[in-house]
Amino acid sequence: MRRFSFPADFAWGAATAAYQIEGAVDQDGRKPSVWDSFCNLPGRILNGDSGAVACDHYHRYESDIALMAALGIKHYRFSLAWSRIVPEGRGSVNEAGVDFYRRLVDCLQAHGITPHATLFHWDSPQALDDRYGSWQSREMAQDFADYASAIVSRLGDRIQHWMTINEIVCFTHLGYGVNELPPHAPGTIVPSLKQVWQTSHHALLAHGMACQAIRAATPQPCSIALVDNFLPTIPIVETPEHIAAAQQAFPICGTNGGIVAPALTGVYHPTLLEQLGENAPDIQANDLKIIHQPLDAFGFNNYSGVYVRACDQSPGYEILAFPTTYPKMQMPWLWICPDSTYWGIRHLSETLDRPDLPIYITENGCAAADQVNGKREVIDTDRILFLQLYLQAAQRASQEGYPLKGYFVWSLLDNFEWAWGYDRRFGITYVDYATQQRIPKTSAQWYAACIRANTPIETE
Ligand code: FCB
Q1: N or C end: fewer C-beta atoms under 10 angstroms in the chain?
Q2: Ligand 1: residues whose CB is within 6 Å?
Q3: pTM for the full model?
């Protein structure tokens, strides 16, 4: 095994999200989220699966945490279910829901594991969808900030690492389609692209207002981050001209210019606004100020990227399509692009000019066609290859001095992979859903060995 050299205080972690693992969807006062409802719509989730039971983590969190501790994982990123804590989305707080996370965090700390809590990983209360169409309304931002304040005032004595929102593009641009069925909850088709951009604008506002609410409610110093899966542009060759092309393409690729850019720089990228024309969202006075809150860290969810080269014609760069034989893991979008790690980090620091901002890779991993063999083992050498390549690229960024502070593998456990149900397995631990047995895959042993073998280079 190759040894890695990350700084001595590098955070080695694993990540999960509430709806994907908890189950217990109607226990202790939890009310439905948009994902519960979305799973009930015929044909939206592969095999008709839902998160109703998932990994039953709500009841098995102690043994899951013990398993994590046994692997030497010292940091855990999980999410809180808004509809456990404020079941109607606004109004009264369900203390029984808060208690679950209090027990979870206490158990983590008893095992020497630092909690990193994401306030929102897509499972917003159904009641708010019924009331005003969730992210279609600006009211969602205020309700989210109130929920943030409710939880931070209760658990802020135990949690110092907060992440506001996970991957805005997924629950907005993929949750509200134009002319086609959106693959993510709430799964509402809105009439125009402008309305789609309005949903992500409201989510940015929710992030900004939640940052303010967390700072007001926390009883101790804490770190606040936004988590995003922006699209890294990779120069096809690392020559000055192609690097410049990748940097030029970065803010206008995918939704980068309208999500990560306003969050980190306080403006929507002008070229994006120009391209959107009348489809640009309505932005009220002060919105960008609220959105552009000081952050203590940034969470980079890193799976894939896109190759870019310089070209003579306007706009001076070209985004390259993947050839059909380009290697992929077991998702249609999961091209293996380890250089996306290095370039993603570098674009945040350099292209968006935020060298001050500490970065965590808050998700990295892959789905593979895992098989349990006759000895009840899962030998996932393909996942090991994937993780190793990405960690090497992360190490390069770290060694070049970019402020990479930690890495969370997605995921601790196989889990409910949204529209793909249980058909796709991203865990380093196999879950036998019939029995809820956990089988650490070979990649879990490999990851544990990486953590143990990390040999920091001494710096002055
Ligand atoms: C990310 C999500 C996470 C998981 C992985 C595979 O987009 O944040 O919940 O589904 O993809």
Answers
A1: C
A2: 17, 20, 166-167, 170, 229, 301, 363, 410, 417-418, 426
A3: 0.98
